[in-house]
Amino acid sequence: MRNRSALILTTVLTTGALTLTACGSRDDKDSEDNGSGGNTTVTIGFDAPLTGDLSALGIGMRNSAELAVKTANKENTVEGVKFKLQPLDDQAQPSVGGQNAQKFISDKGVLGVVGPLNSSVSQSMQKPFNDASLTQISPANTGTELTQGDGWKKGDKKRQFKTFFRTATTDQVQGQFAAQYLIQKAKVKKVYLIDDQKTYGAGLAASFKDTFTALGGKIVGQDHVNPEDRDFKSVASKVKGTGAQAVYYGGEYPAAAPLSQQLKESGAKVPLMGGDGMKSEEFPKLNKKAVGDLGTSVGKPVEELASAKKFIEEYNKNYKENMETYGGGTYDATWAIIEAVKIAVADNGGKVPSDGRAKVLEAMSKVKFDGVTGTVSFDEFGDTTNTMMTAYEVSKGNKWESKFSEAYKPR
Amino acid sequence: MNELPQQLANGLILGAMYGLIAIGYTMVYGIVQLINFAHGEIFMVGGFGALTVSLWLPDGFSLLAAIPLMIIGGVICSVAVGTAAERFAYRPLRGAPRLAPLITAIGLSILLQQAVWKWYPDAKKDRTFPQFSGEPVHIFGADIQRGDFFLIIAAPLCMLALAYYVNKTRTGRGMQATAQDPDTAKLMGINTDRIIVMAFAIGAAFAAVAAVGYGLHNGQVGFKMGFIMGLKAFTAAVLGGIGNIYGAMLGGIVLGVAEALATGYMADVPGMEQFGGGAWKDVWAFALLILVLLLRPQGLLGERVADRA
After folding, report:
1. Confidence of residue B305 (pLDDT cuts 50, 70, 90)
2. Among A169-173, A268-272, B168-172, B250-254, which is the least confidently predicted range?
3. Is A13 an 8 Å CB contact of chain B?
4. Do domains A40-169+305-378 and A171-298+389-407 have the same CATH topology?
5. Cα(A176)–Cα(A202) distance, rounded to whole angstroms?
6. Which residue ranges traverse the bilayer (chain B) (predicted)?
7. Closest-CA residue of chain B to A2
8. How many CB atoms are closer than 10 A to CB A12?
9. What's the rounded Cα separation, in Å, for the pair A69 and A266?
10. I need a surface site. Which of A4, A38, B133, B178 has the fewest CB within 10 A?
């Protein structure tokens, strides 16, 4: 008897744990009227890490996508069509992202998907979406090979998946821009290079390294860390002895924040520089010694763009979470799908075509509009035509402050 | 240029943290032969308990004065969770095959993680933990952060207190007796249920102290922090000889120092350039574990005990 009650308890605990895990993606309030009054409902899928340590970025993205959908419904952007956002949580894990992709594909109402955040997750979604002709736009994937193939370094660019688009510029552009900024603006000649071995971090570090050495800089040492770690004292102690003037980190803010702080505590008083994965509002909060650290991000700072004013206003009115780095890009990505649906519907005499996915995909190449981050359109690889880059520095007030913006031409 | 003292200090501090957590694994295993995989999460709950206390305190309250209060808050939380886990998850399974409590422990670990994730305010991402300001102190060629002195002081104190408790007090001796033979101990009038609860409680309290050290060291606590730390501490307990409390601390320190040295120096060994650095440190730490277990299967300080399964 005793054993049986124990068994029941175990089952209850395990089920409880599983239910809690599953609950994660469904804690939002959904009260949109869908499909009423002769309207067709078009679902836009959304995928990003909504739980876990990258959730600050992911939740900012979800809110922005939701805002785009709400705006389109309110302004009746596409006559006779109501949009609905279906957000799923990928926990920043490729396997979960792959499952989510299957979920979107099997739901025939989904005509486009926005996301994900991580390049590594995207790799598990691209192929299924491609086979299903389902359009995917990522506001955050910067891995160059995602659009141009592994041969891009040798100039052998080949489009990988006809369904994959992005509003973010590539690691190639970002790493090169960072290298150029360090050499030309910050006058740094010796850099220690660290990455977290993920698709994003390693790609960024590789692109940085090539340009930095080509411009006459010297990489005085290189190391890799585990993105789950929070203790980087040993690595920091090593940097100190190399005479590096800065450390470039390919990776994201949860590890970058303690890394930066421990670097400075170890006595190597040099700034840490990273890409858009590090340039999060959380970074200076988690890091007591962030002042002087550098980050690059795609597009102009949304606060400086006239086109973004309304977006920021609306966003802050509706959401308490910060929009983070990808808010504007996500809004634009979602809007690009809405525009594509609009074109497809217009070509079909005002109705959503029966082969909606194929028609939306076809329309993507014609999409062009003034979005939050600038003019949004896509080139022959599905990459954004907007290569505006901005360098930021953590100011004395412990906030990211934009330093320098440029429409960067990849080398 | 010589960074050896610095790397040793880094390893020592990390190792003290592993050791304190490892005590919890080793005590529970020594007495009930259960690997409490939820112990990493008990450590995490302790961290959040301490964080809660620090958030309650008024602004400008000195951190030095706050630390005892934070320890108390952390200990209360983790001991409550640890003993509740024993009472409601493990005790009903005491007669069951070994796999049942093991799986329960894994389930409990996920449950605790998700519970903190769900209900602790703003815990869906890492929370900042108070830290000492001021420059590091330079001793014996190493820069030591002010916050790290907490571990340097707390770890030996905890060990001394534990050694005294286990060897000199009545309950402590009862603990040893229960570890040697629970049935006979029961016949001799020892309340084994109470002893087992004590083992869980002490392990949880030590984990909470380690969690305060973790927070001061890294400046943040997060709901996922228990997983890696728990795994490493378990390794430390095995390395030192599971069931032996001194072994747990020694194992922790050996593991911490091995990690620091592997990060700092492995790349300098000729032919090993690509196997050095932060990414490979765990590989070397576990290679060390395998080596020790090959030569001394009972761990560094473990005694050869007949399996009582």
Report:
1. low
2. A169-173
3. yes
4. yes
5. 14
6. 12-32, 39-57, 63-85, 97-117, 149-166, 195-215, 246-267
7. B92
8. 11
9. 48
10. A38
DSSP string, A123-155: HTTHHHHHHTT-EEEESS---THHHH-GGGGGT
Closest CA to A331 of A315, A347, A350, A318: A315
Calculate mean pLDDT across residues A104-122.
92
Where does the pLDDT of residue A32 fall: very low under 50, low under 70, confident under 90, or very high at 90 and above? very low
**What secondary structure letter does DSSP report for B301?**
S
Interchain proximity B224–A6, CB inside 8 Å: no
- Pick from A395, A266, A388, A268: nearest CA to A332: A388
- What ipTM was assigned to the predicted interfaces of this complex? 0.71
What fold, for A40-169+305-378? Answer: Rossmann fold (3.40.50)
Could you give the CA distance from residue A17 to residue B109 in angstroms, rounded to a whole number?
9
The span from the CA of A193 to the CA of A249, in Å, is 6
> How far apart (Å, rounded) are the C-alpha atoms in residues B289 and B307?
21
For residue B7, give the nearest of A23, A229, A237 by CB distance: A237
Helix (H) or strand (E) holding A45: strand A40-48
The yes-or-no verdict on residue B155 having pLDDT over 80 is yes
Nearest Cα residue in chain A from B227: A228
Binning pLDDT at 50, 70 and 90, where does residue B125 land?
Answer: confident
Residues 6+ apart with CB under 8 A from B203: B23, B24, B25, B27, B28, B36, B39, B42, B82
CB contact under 8 A, B114 and A20: yes
> Which positions ≥6 away from A61 have C-beta within 8 Å?
A46, A48, A114, A115, A117, A139, A140, A324, A326, A327, A330
From the list A52, A226, A237, the residue facing B10 with the nearest CB is: A237
Q: What is the pLDDT of residues B52-83, one digit of tens each?
A: 999 998 887 888 889 999 999 999 999 999 99
Q: Does A103 touch chain B (CB under 8 A)?
A: no
Tell me whether residues A258 and B218 touch, CB distance under 8 A.
Answer: yes
pTM for the model stands at 0.74
Chain A hits for B276, CB-CB cut-off 8 Å, are 223
The amino acid sitting at A60 is: G
Chain A residue with minimum CA distance to B93: A6
The superfamily CATH assigns to domain A171-298+389-407 is Response regulator (3.40.50.2300)
* Interchain contact, B278 vs A225, CB within 8 Å: yes
Determine which helix (DSSP H) or strand (DSSP E) holds A44, and give its type and residue range. strand A40-48
Q: Which of A293-302, B221-230, B287-296 has the lowest mean pLDDT?
A: A293-302
Q: Domain ranges for chain A, please list them.
A: 40-169+305-378, 171-298+389-407
Six-digit token pair at A79? 């006559």
Residue A225 pLDDT > 70: yes
